[in-house]
Design a protein that fits this description.
By secondary structure, the protein is α+β, with helices and mostly antiparallel strands. The protein contains three helices and five strands; from the N terminus they run H-E-E-H-E-E-E-H. The strands form two sheets. Strands 3-5-4 form a three-stranded antiparallel sheet. It has a two-stranded antiparallel sheet with strand order 1-2.
Length: 119
C-alpha cells in the first residue's frame, strides 16, 4: 500500500481531482453572488460522488486556503487531514504533511496557465 507519505500524497491527488471538478461546477452554478448550488464531496474515495449544497460565499471562503477541502460528514480521513470546520451539510478538512504539500501544488487557483492539469 506504500509508505504513509505516499498514502498522503495519493489522498491529496484524489481530492484535488474533485476540487478541479468543483471549480468547473462553481463557474457554472455558483457564479452569481447569493447563488446556491451543489458541489461534489471532495473526500479521498474516488467512488464517492455525493452532493453538498453550497452557497458561493461558503465555497469561496474555503478556496482561499489551498489545503482545505469540503467533505460530507463521516468522510474524514484522520491520517491525512484534520477537521477545521463543520456544520450539518459538510466538513472542511485541512490536509497536512505530504497531503498538504500535494494539495498546494495541485491547487488550480495557484497554477499558471502553462502548468499541466492534474494527472
Amino acid at each position: 500500500m506504500g509508505t504513509r507519505e505516499e498514502q498522503q500524497a495519493e489522498g491529496a491527488r484524489r481530492q484535488s481531482l474533485f476540487r478541479h471538478v468543483n471549480e468547473r461546477i462553481e463557474a457554472i452554478t455558483l457564479a452569481a453572488p447569493g447563488s446556491v448550488g451543489e458541489i461534489l464531496c471532495e473526500c479521498a474515495n474516488l467512488q464517492c460522488a455525493e452532493p453538498i449544497e453550497m452557497a458561493l460565499d461558503e465555497y469561496e471562503k474555503v478556496r482561499l486556503v489551498p489545503t482545505h477541502f469540503f467533505v460530507k460528514p463521516g468522510h474524514v480521513v484522520p491520517d491525512i487531514e484534520r477537521v477545521v470546520e463543520e456544520n450539518g451539510r459538510y466538513v472542511v478538512v485541512e490536509k497536512f504533511g505530504e497531503a498538504g504539500k500535494g494539495a498546494v501544488r495541485l491547487d488550480p487557483r495557484r497554477q499558471s496557465a502553462d502548468d499541466p492539469a492534474v494527472a
